[in-house]
Amino acid sequence: MTGKVYQDATSALEGVVFDGMTVMHGGFGLSGNPENLVTALKENGVKNLTVISNNCGADGVGLWVLLDNGQIRKMISSYVGENKLFESLYLSGKLELELNPQGTLAERIRAGGAGIPAFYTKTGVGTVVAEGKPTEIFDGETYVRETWLKADLALVKAWKGDHEGNLVYRKTARNFNPNMATAAKVTIAEVEELVPNGTLDPDQIHTPGIFVNRILQGRDYAKRIEFRTVRPRADKEPTSQQENA
Amino acid sequence: MAWTREEMAARAARELKDGYYVNLGIGIPTLVANYIPKGMTVTLQSENGMLGIGPFPYEGDEDPDLINAGKQTITAIPTSSFFSSADSFAMIRGGHIDMAVLGAMEVSEQGDIANWTIPGKMVKGMGGAMDLVAGVKRVIAVMEHANKAGKSKVLKGCTLPLTGSRCIDMVITDLCVFDIDRKLGKMRLIELAPGVTLDDVKAKTEAEYVVALA
Asked: What is the count of residue pairs from A and B with beta carbons less than 8 Å apart?
Protein backbone atom coordinates (compact mmCIF):
# COMPACT_ATOMS: atom_id res chain seq x y z
CA MET A 1 0.00 0.00 0.00
CA THR A 2 2.84 2.38 0.77
CA GLY A 3 4.10 2.58 -2.78
CA LYS A 4 7.42 4.01 -1.65
CA VAL A 5 9.55 1.65 -3.71
CA TYR A 6 10.96 2.91 -7.03
CA GLN A 7 12.73 0.91 -9.70
CA ASP A 8 15.80 3.10 -9.85
CA ALA A 9 17.23 6.52 -8.99
CA THR A 10 15.98 8.15 -12.21
CA SER A 11 12.34 7.18 -11.62
CA ALA A 12 12.61 8.10 -7.92
CA LEU A 13 13.50 11.70 -8.90
CA GLU A 14 10.46 12.08 -11.19
CA GLY A 15 8.14 14.92 -10.20
CA VAL A 16 10.18 16.19 -7.27
CA VAL A 17 13.03 18.01 -9.00
CA PHE A 18 13.01 21.65 -10.14
CA ASP A 19 15.52 24.41 -10.98
CA GLY A 20 16.56 26.53 -8.00
CA MET A 21 15.70 23.88 -5.42
CA THR A 22 17.55 23.13 -2.20
CA VAL A 23 18.94 19.61 -1.88
CA MET A 24 20.44 17.89 1.16
CA HIS A 25 23.08 15.29 0.35
CA GLY A 26 24.15 12.75 2.98
CA GLY A 27 27.66 11.50 3.55
CA PHE A 28 30.97 12.46 5.11
CA GLY A 29 33.75 12.67 2.58
CA LEU A 30 32.90 9.87 0.15
CA SER A 31 31.49 7.62 2.89
CA GLY A 32 27.73 7.09 2.90
CA ASN A 33 27.14 9.04 -0.32
CA PRO A 34 23.93 8.56 -2.35
CA GLU A 35 25.90 7.64 -5.47
CA ASN A 36 22.97 6.48 -7.63
CA LEU A 37 20.87 9.56 -6.89
CA VAL A 38 23.71 11.99 -7.64
CA THR A 39 24.29 10.32 -11.00
CA ALA A 40 20.56 10.55 -11.74
CA LEU A 41 20.52 14.21 -10.71
CA LYS A 42 23.33 14.85 -13.17
CA GLU A 43 21.43 13.11 -15.97
CA ASN A 44 18.30 15.07 -15.01
CA GLY A 45 20.24 18.30 -15.62
CA VAL A 46 18.38 20.35 -12.97
CA LYS A 47 20.12 23.70 -12.40
CA ASN A 48 20.78 26.46 -9.85
CA LEU A 49 20.87 24.02 -6.97
CA THR A 50 21.62 24.98 -3.40
CA VAL A 51 23.27 21.89 -1.97
CA ILE A 52 23.59 21.23 1.76
CA SER A 53 26.32 18.66 2.31
CA ASN A 54 29.26 18.43 4.71
CA ASN A 55 31.64 18.18 1.74
CA CYS A 56 31.39 18.57 -2.02
CA GLY A 57 32.86 15.31 -3.26
CA ALA A 58 36.50 14.91 -4.23
CA ASP A 59 38.31 15.43 -7.53
CA GLY A 60 36.25 13.50 -10.11
CA VAL A 61 33.72 11.85 -7.78
CA GLY A 62 30.58 12.45 -5.71
CA LEU A 63 29.01 15.91 -5.80
CA TRP A 64 32.01 17.01 -7.84
CA VAL A 65 30.18 15.75 -10.95
CA LEU A 66 27.32 18.21 -10.35
CA LEU A 67 29.83 21.04 -9.85
CA ASP A 68 31.59 20.04 -13.05
CA ASN A 69 28.25 20.00 -14.87
CA GLY A 70 27.47 23.56 -13.70
CA GLN A 71 24.35 22.53 -11.72
CA ILE A 72 25.27 23.95 -8.31
CA ARG A 73 24.77 27.63 -7.51
CA LYS A 74 25.49 27.51 -3.80
CA MET A 75 27.01 25.09 -1.28
CA ILE A 76 26.32 24.99 2.45
CA SER A 77 29.15 22.88 3.89
CA SER A 78 31.73 22.63 6.68
CA TYR A 79 34.75 21.46 4.73
CA VAL A 80 35.50 21.70 1.01
CA GLY A 81 39.21 20.80 0.79
CA GLU A 82 40.65 18.16 -1.54
CA ASN A 83 38.57 19.60 -4.39
CA LYS A 84 40.46 21.78 -6.87
CA LEU A 85 37.42 22.45 -9.05
CA PHE A 86 35.52 23.76 -6.04
CA GLU A 87 38.35 26.10 -5.14
CA SER A 88 38.68 27.54 -8.64
CA LEU A 89 34.91 28.02 -9.10
CA TYR A 90 34.66 29.70 -5.69
CA LEU A 91 37.68 31.96 -6.14
CA SER A 92 36.40 33.07 -9.57
CA GLY A 93 33.01 33.97 -8.08
CA LYS A 94 31.03 31.29 -9.98
CA LEU A 95 29.98 29.45 -6.85
CA GLU A 96 28.48 30.70 -3.61
CA LEU A 97 29.69 29.13 -0.39
CA GLU A 98 28.31 29.26 3.12
CA LEU A 99 30.69 27.57 5.54
CA ASN A 100 29.18 26.30 8.78
CA PRO A 101 30.98 24.68 11.69
CA GLN A 102 30.29 20.96 11.29
CA GLY A 103 28.35 20.61 14.55
CA THR A 104 26.31 23.71 13.81
CA LEU A 105 25.52 22.32 10.35
CA ALA A 106 24.38 19.00 11.85
CA GLU A 107 22.29 20.72 14.54
CA ARG A 108 20.69 23.15 12.06
CA ILE A 109 19.58 20.13 10.03
CA ARG A 110 18.40 18.28 13.14
CA ALA A 111 16.46 21.41 14.19
CA GLY A 112 14.91 21.68 10.71
CA GLY A 113 13.62 18.14 10.98
CA ALA A 114 12.42 18.59 14.57
CA GLY A 115 10.45 21.78 13.97
CA ILE A 116 12.79 24.03 15.98
CA PRO A 117 13.37 27.32 14.11
CA ALA A 118 16.45 28.42 16.09
CA PHE A 119 18.81 27.44 18.88
CA TYR A 120 21.80 28.91 20.72
CA THR A 121 25.33 27.51 20.60
CA LYS A 122 28.76 28.49 21.90
CA THR A 123 30.34 27.31 18.64
CA GLY A 124 31.64 30.23 16.59
CA VAL A 125 31.23 32.94 19.25
CA GLY A 126 33.96 35.55 18.69
CA THR A 127 34.56 34.41 15.09
CA VAL A 128 33.26 35.43 11.65
CA VAL A 129 30.63 32.71 11.96
CA ALA A 130 28.78 34.75 14.61
CA GLU A 131 28.95 38.08 12.73
CA GLY A 132 25.51 39.65 12.31
CA LYS A 133 23.76 36.98 14.38
CA PRO A 134 21.98 37.68 17.69
CA THR A 135 23.76 36.58 20.85
CA GLU A 136 22.50 35.97 24.35
CA ILE A 137 24.12 35.20 27.70
CA PHE A 138 23.14 31.97 29.49
CA ASP A 139 24.73 31.10 32.86
CA GLY A 140 27.31 33.83 32.32
CA GLU A 141 28.47 32.67 28.88
CA THR A 142 27.77 34.12 25.44
CA TYR A 143 25.93 31.98 22.89
CA VAL A 144 25.05 32.75 19.26
CA ARG A 145 21.70 32.07 17.64
CA GLU A 146 21.65 29.71 14.68
CA THR A 147 18.58 28.89 12.61
CA TRP A 148 17.17 25.66 11.23
CA LEU A 149 17.99 24.26 7.79
CA LYS A 150 15.34 22.64 5.63
CA ALA A 151 15.37 21.41 2.06
CA ASP A 152 13.04 20.60 -0.81
CA LEU A 153 14.71 17.25 -1.23
CA ALA A 154 17.01 15.04 0.86
CA LEU A 155 19.10 12.34 -0.82
CA VAL A 156 20.31 9.76 1.69
CA LYS A 157 22.19 6.49 1.51
CA ALA A 158 21.59 3.57 3.89
CA TRP A 159 22.88 0.02 4.12
CA LYS A 160 19.52 -1.72 4.38
CA GLY A 161 15.96 -0.54 4.03
CA ASP A 162 12.53 -2.14 3.81
CA HIS A 163 9.51 -1.23 1.67
CA GLU A 164 8.16 1.00 4.45
CA GLY A 165 11.35 3.09 4.27
CA ASN A 166 12.81 1.96 7.59
CA LEU A 167 16.57 2.41 7.32
CA VAL A 168 19.69 0.90 8.87
CA TYR A 169 23.09 2.48 8.26
CA ARG A 170 26.48 0.81 8.41
CA LYS A 171 29.40 2.07 10.54
CA THR A 172 30.61 5.63 9.82
CA ALA A 173 28.57 5.73 6.59
CA ARG A 174 25.71 6.89 8.86
CA ASN A 175 27.04 10.45 9.54
CA PHE A 176 24.62 13.16 8.26
CA ASN A 177 22.19 10.73 6.58
CA PRO A 178 19.70 10.16 9.46
CA ASN A 179 19.60 13.89 10.29
CA MET A 180 19.01 14.94 6.68
CA ALA A 181 16.33 12.28 6.21
CA THR A 182 14.15 14.23 8.68
CA ALA A 183 14.63 17.73 7.27
CA ALA A 184 13.27 17.83 3.72
CA LYS A 185 9.83 18.00 2.08
CA VAL A 186 10.72 14.84 0.18
CA THR A 187 13.33 12.30 1.28
CA ILE A 188 14.63 9.68 -1.12
CA ALA A 189 16.75 6.85 0.26
CA GLU A 190 18.95 4.55 -1.78
CA VAL A 191 20.01 1.33 -0.09
CA GLU A 192 22.52 -1.41 -0.78
CA GLU A 193 19.91 -3.99 0.16
CA LEU A 194 16.17 -3.47 -0.19
CA VAL A 195 14.70 -6.14 2.09
CA PRO A 196 11.12 -7.44 2.56
CA ASN A 197 9.06 -5.92 5.36
CA GLY A 198 9.54 -7.82 8.60
CA THR A 199 13.22 -8.50 7.93
CA LEU A 200 14.64 -5.60 9.94
CA ASP A 201 14.54 -5.71 13.74
CA PRO A 202 12.32 -2.79 14.88
CA ASP A 203 14.70 -2.22 17.82
CA GLN A 204 17.59 -1.61 15.43
CA ILE A 205 16.01 0.87 12.99
CA HIS A 206 18.05 4.11 12.71
CA THR A 207 15.60 6.06 10.54
CA PRO A 208 11.90 5.21 10.97
CA GLY A 209 10.00 4.96 7.68
CA ILE A 210 7.89 8.06 8.35
CA PHE A 211 10.87 10.18 7.30
CA VAL A 212 11.35 8.41 3.97
CA ASN A 213 9.04 9.10 1.01
CA ARG A 214 10.77 7.07 -1.67
CA ILE A 215 13.23 4.20 -1.57
CA LEU A 216 15.25 2.35 -4.18
CA GLN A 217 17.75 -0.44 -4.47
CA GLY A 218 21.07 1.13 -5.47
CA ARG A 219 23.59 -0.55 -7.73
CA ASP A 220 27.23 -0.48 -8.82
CA TYR A 221 28.54 1.22 -5.69
CA ALA A 222 32.06 2.58 -6.19
CA LYS A 223 32.54 3.52 -2.50
CA ARG A 224 35.87 5.13 -3.21
CA ILE A 225 38.34 5.48 -0.35
CA GLU A 226 39.94 8.93 -0.11
CA PHE A 227 42.91 8.06 2.12
CA ARG A 228 43.82 4.40 2.28
CA THR A 229 45.76 3.89 5.52
CA VAL A 230 46.86 0.39 6.52
CA ARG A 231 49.31 -1.46 8.74
CA PRO A 232 51.37 -4.39 7.44
CA ARG A 233 50.15 -7.83 8.49
CA ALA A 234 53.50 -8.70 10.05
CA ASP A 235 53.29 -5.64 12.29
CA LYS A 236 52.42 -6.75 15.80
CA GLU A 237 52.63 -3.23 17.24
CA PRO A 238 49.78 -0.94 16.15
CA THR A 239 51.28 2.15 14.58
CA SER A 240 48.28 4.38 14.27
CA GLN A 241 45.12 5.43 16.05
CA GLN A 242 44.47 2.89 18.74
CA GLU A 243 43.00 2.28 22.10
CA ASN A 244 45.06 0.56 24.77
CA ALA A 245 42.80 -1.49 26.95
CA MET B 1 67.53 20.20 20.04
CA ALA B 2 63.94 21.05 19.30
CA TRP B 3 61.24 18.38 19.52
CA THR B 4 60.34 16.43 16.37
CA ARG B 5 56.70 15.94 15.31
CA GLU B 6 56.73 12.54 17.02
CA GLU B 7 58.20 14.01 20.21
CA MET B 8 55.57 16.78 20.24
CA ALA B 9 52.87 14.11 19.94
CA ALA B 10 54.49 12.13 22.77
CA ARG B 11 54.53 15.28 24.93
CA ALA B 12 50.83 15.87 24.24
CA ALA B 13 50.11 12.24 25.20
CA ARG B 14 51.50 12.99 28.68
CA GLU B 15 48.39 15.13 29.23
CA LEU B 16 46.12 12.08 28.84
CA LYS B 17 44.49 10.52 31.87
CA ASP B 18 42.96 7.09 32.41
CA GLY B 19 39.34 6.96 31.30
CA TYR B 20 39.55 10.03 29.07
CA TYR B 21 37.41 10.44 25.95
CA VAL B 22 39.60 12.28 23.45
CA ASN B 23 39.28 13.82 20.00
CA LEU B 24 42.48 14.08 17.95
CA GLY B 25 42.80 16.47 15.01
CA ILE B 26 44.53 15.80 11.71
CA GLY B 27 48.35 15.84 11.40
CA ILE B 28 50.59 15.77 14.50
CA PRO B 29 47.55 15.32 16.81
CA THR B 30 46.72 11.99 15.10
CA LEU B 31 50.18 10.71 16.15
CA VAL B 32 49.24 11.19 19.83
CA ALA B 33 47.36 7.86 19.60
CA ASN B 34 50.71 6.07 19.24
CA TYR B 35 51.87 7.32 22.65
CA ILE B 36 48.95 6.40 24.90
CA PRO B 37 50.71 4.95 27.97
CA LYS B 38 50.42 1.17 28.37
CA GLY B 39 47.70 0.20 30.81
CA MET B 40 45.81 3.47 30.31
CA THR B 41 42.35 3.35 28.75
CA VAL B 42 41.77 6.28 26.43
CA THR B 43 38.79 6.22 24.07
CA LEU B 44 39.16 8.17 20.84
CA GLN B 45 36.21 9.97 19.27
CA SER B 46 35.89 10.82 15.60
CA GLU B 47 33.46 13.61 14.77
CA ASN B 48 32.04 11.84 11.72
CA GLY B 49 30.25 9.54 14.17
CA MET B 50 32.40 7.02 16.02
CA LEU B 51 33.60 6.39 19.55
CA GLY B 52 36.39 3.86 20.14
CA ILE B 53 38.81 4.08 17.19
CA GLY B 54 41.08 1.12 16.55
CA PRO B 55 44.36 0.99 14.59
CA PHE B 56 44.59 1.26 10.81
CA PRO B 57 43.28 -1.92 9.12
CA TYR B 58 45.53 -4.68 7.84
CA GLU B 59 46.19 -4.38 4.14
CA GLY B 60 43.18 -5.77 2.28
CA ASP B 61 40.79 -5.20 5.20
CA GLU B 62 40.05 -1.55 4.40
CA ASP B 63 36.34 -0.71 4.62
CA PRO B 64 35.02 2.42 2.85
CA ASP B 65 32.21 2.56 5.44
CA LEU B 66 34.75 2.86 8.26
CA ILE B 67 36.77 6.07 8.19
CA ASN B 68 37.92 8.74 10.65
CA ALA B 69 37.34 12.48 10.36
CA GLY B 70 40.50 12.73 8.25
CA LYS B 71 38.82 10.29 5.81
CA GLN B 72 41.49 7.65 6.54
CA THR B 73 40.52 3.99 6.77
CA ILE B 74 40.46 2.77 10.38
CA THR B 75 39.10 -0.16 12.41
CA ALA B 76 36.61 -0.63 15.24
CA ILE B 77 37.36 -2.17 18.66
CA PRO B 78 35.06 -4.35 20.80
CA THR B 79 33.62 -1.32 22.62
CA SER B 80 33.10 0.95 19.57
CA SER B 81 29.85 2.70 18.79
CA PHE B 82 28.56 4.54 15.73
CA PHE B 83 26.12 7.44 15.67
CA SER B 84 24.86 10.36 13.59
CA SER B 85 26.64 13.69 13.07
CA ALA B 86 24.11 15.46 15.32
CA ASP B 87 24.74 12.95 18.14
CA SER B 88 28.48 13.25 17.59
CA PHE B 89 28.41 16.99 18.11
CA ALA B 90 26.09 16.64 21.10
CA MET B 91 29.03 14.77 22.65
CA ILE B 92 31.47 17.48 21.62
CA ARG B 93 29.41 20.62 22.20
CA GLY B 94 27.73 19.19 25.29
CA GLY B 95 31.03 18.94 27.17
CA HIS B 96 31.25 15.14 27.22
CA ILE B 97 34.70 14.94 25.60
CA ASP B 98 37.56 15.36 28.09
CA MET B 99 40.34 16.54 25.81
CA ALA B 100 41.01 17.59 22.23
CA VAL B 101 44.40 17.95 20.55
CA LEU B 102 44.37 20.21 17.49
CA GLY B 103 46.83 21.63 15.02
CA ALA B 104 47.07 25.42 14.74
CA MET B 105 48.32 28.09 12.36
CA GLU B 106 48.40 30.75 15.12
CA VAL B 107 47.66 30.95 18.84
CA SER B 108 47.51 33.99 21.11
CA GLU B 109 48.53 34.55 24.71
CA GLN B 110 44.83 34.78 25.68
CA GLY B 111 44.17 31.29 24.31
CA ASP B 112 42.73 32.29 20.93
CA ILE B 113 43.36 29.89 18.05
CA ALA B 114 43.29 30.23 14.25
CA ASN B 115 43.51 27.08 12.15
CA TRP B 116 40.87 27.05 9.41
CA THR B 117 41.49 29.64 6.71
CA ILE B 118 43.97 32.00 5.10
CA PRO B 119 41.80 34.64 3.40
CA GLY B 120 42.33 34.82 -0.37
CA LYS B 121 44.70 31.85 -0.34
CA MET B 122 43.08 28.78 1.14
CA VAL B 123 39.43 27.73 1.03
CA LYS B 124 38.89 24.58 3.00
CA GLY B 125 36.57 25.25 5.91
CA MET B 126 36.55 24.75 9.65
CA GLY B 127 35.04 21.25 9.71
CA GLY B 128 34.50 20.35 13.36
CA ALA B 129 37.28 22.54 14.81
CA MET B 130 35.04 25.41 15.99
CA ASP B 131 32.72 23.00 17.81
CA LEU B 132 35.67 21.19 19.40
CA VAL B 133 37.28 24.33 20.82
CA ALA B 134 33.90 25.56 22.06
CA GLY B 135 32.75 22.38 23.75
CA VAL B 136 35.65 20.14 24.82
CA LYS B 137 36.76 20.47 28.45
CA ARG B 138 40.50 20.79 27.77
CA VAL B 139 41.98 21.87 24.44
CA ILE B 140 45.65 21.48 23.51
CA ALA B 141 47.19 23.09 20.42
CA VAL B 142 50.24 21.42 18.86
CA MET B 143 52.23 23.34 16.25
CA GLU B 144 55.60 24.57 15.03
CA HIS B 145 56.70 27.57 17.09
CA ALA B 146 57.53 29.69 14.04
CA ASN B 147 56.80 29.53 10.32
CA LYS B 148 59.41 28.70 7.68
CA ALA B 149 60.43 32.36 7.48
CA GLY B 150 61.08 32.32 11.24
CA LYS B 151 58.03 34.44 12.13
CA SER B 152 56.40 33.59 15.45
CA LYS B 153 53.08 31.74 15.47
CA VAL B 154 52.67 32.34 19.23
CA LEU B 155 51.28 35.85 19.14
CA LYS B 156 49.88 38.70 21.25
CA GLY B 157 46.79 38.42 19.06
CA CYS B 158 46.00 36.18 16.08
CA THR B 159 46.08 37.84 12.65
CA LEU B 160 44.10 35.10 10.85
CA PRO B 161 40.33 34.61 11.29
CA LEU B 162 39.74 32.87 14.61
CA THR B 163 38.53 29.34 15.17
CA GLY B 164 37.73 30.26 18.76
CA SER B 165 38.60 32.86 21.35
CA ARG B 166 40.00 32.09 24.83
CA CYS B 167 39.57 28.37 24.34
CA ILE B 168 43.10 26.89 24.40
CA ASP B 169 44.52 25.51 27.68
CA MET B 170 47.98 24.45 26.50
CA VAL B 171 50.28 25.02 23.54
CA ILE B 172 52.96 22.47 22.67
CA THR B 173 55.50 23.62 20.08
CA ASP B 174 58.77 22.16 18.85
CA LEU B 175 60.55 24.39 21.40
CA CYS B 176 58.46 24.39 24.56
CA VAL B 177 55.17 24.06 26.41
CA PHE B 178 52.97 26.97 27.48
CA ASP B 179 49.92 26.72 29.67
CA ILE B 180 47.21 29.34 29.42
CA ASP B 181 44.80 30.61 32.01
CA ARG B 182 42.03 31.49 29.61
CA LYS B 183 39.96 33.33 32.22
CA LEU B 184 42.85 35.69 33.00
CA GLY B 185 44.17 35.54 29.43
CA LYS B 186 47.72 34.84 30.64
CA MET B 187 50.37 32.51 29.30
CA ARG B 188 53.11 30.71 31.25
CA LEU B 189 56.17 28.95 29.86
CA ILE B 190 56.26 25.69 31.84
CA GLU B 191 58.68 23.42 29.97
CA LEU B 192 61.53 23.59 27.47
CA ALA B 193 62.41 20.94 24.88
CA PRO B 194 65.83 19.39 25.63
CA GLY B 195 68.64 21.75 24.64
CA VAL B 196 66.32 24.71 24.04
CA THR B 197 67.12 27.83 26.09
CA LEU B 198 64.91 30.60 27.45
CA ASP B 199 66.57 32.93 24.95
CA ASP B 200 65.69 30.61 22.05
CA VAL B 201 62.01 30.76 23.06
CA LYS B 202 62.13 34.52 23.65
CA ALA B 203 63.59 35.11 20.18
CA LYS B 204 60.78 33.20 18.48
CA THR B 205 57.79 34.28 20.59
CA GLU B 206 55.78 37.44 20.01
CA ALA B 207 53.34 36.73 22.85
CA GLU B 208 54.02 37.84 26.40
CA TYR B 209 54.46 35.10 28.94
CA VAL B 210 55.71 34.41 32.44
CA VAL B 211 58.52 31.90 32.89
CA ALA B 212 57.36 29.22 35.33
CA LEU B 213 59.57 26.21 34.66
CA ALA B 214 59.00 23.31 37.02
From this structure: 229
